[in-house]
Amino acid sequence: MAQYADYDNFAWFYNQELGEFAEHIFPALKIIAGDKLPAKANILDLCCGTGQLAKVLIEKCYRVTGIDGSKEMLRYAKSNAPNAEFINEDARTFKLPSIYDAVFSTFDALNHVMTIEELRAVFKNVNRCLVKGGIFIFDLTTEKHFETQKIFNNQVKERPDCLFTIRCDYTQENKTGKFHFTIFQPEGKRWKRSDIVLHQTWYPCEDVKSALEKAGFSGIRAHSFNQQRELVEVTEDTTRAFFLAEKP
Q1: DSSP one-letter string for 188-224
Q2: Domain residue ranges of the chain, discontinuous segments joined by +
Q3: Mind listing the pLDDT tens digit for each residue in 198-224?
Q4: pLDDT for the residue numbered 2
Q5: Which of 200, 50, 196 is nearest to 139 (CA)?
Q6: What CATH number was assigned to the domain covering residues 4-142+203-246?
Q7: Topology of the domain comprising 144-201
Q8: Packed helices 52-59 and 21-33: angle between N→C axes, nearest 10 degrees
């Protein structure tokens, strides 16, 4: 998250190839929230990327503000969700008034926060901007995910307007995953090459819950989904965990 130029360079690819997650993630968020998400809620989409989830939320008649550290990501977001408000801020340092009924952060955005101290700072910022009784729902990929990605997520894909490769490295000693993207796009009679490296880490479930408690949250729960899209307990085989926390 410190090098936003990397995310600026990644924005086109993210918007083109990864935005479809939003249609699938919203039903999961609704299931986790249950009756705690009021109709027409005021929602903060934290690390909103190129705005696909914001678009879905607007279509569901929620009021939406999106925050992201990448100006280029937000340029796409404003086009994808023109009725949402977008703010160019760092998740670790933003300050907003206590007006939001819910904060969502999805698609392992918070795995890009590389230390538990910084993650706790994010949680404190979220807590401050929620109304009393407001909810915070986010997902984090797990150690199992990183081990699996290293083995299975090396890809080469060709599209009419680009060719790209993805290579994933995981170093167990420092819990760091590196995602290497090489993108070729036509530029006149030539092809332009872009090389991007993004970093992620993972956190034990208990460390996340402890950080949430220290940030002032209660009612903290962790879930996963099975293949039938039912909520289940987080296990050592879980690759993506969803957390729900409430502001007392």
Answers
A1: TTEEEEEEEEEEEE---HHHHHHHHHHTT-EEEEEEE
A2: 4-142+203-246, 144-201
A3: 999 999 999 999 999 999 999 999 999
A4: 43
A5: 200
A6: 3.40.50.150
A7: N-terminal domain of TfIIb (2.20.25)
A8: 60
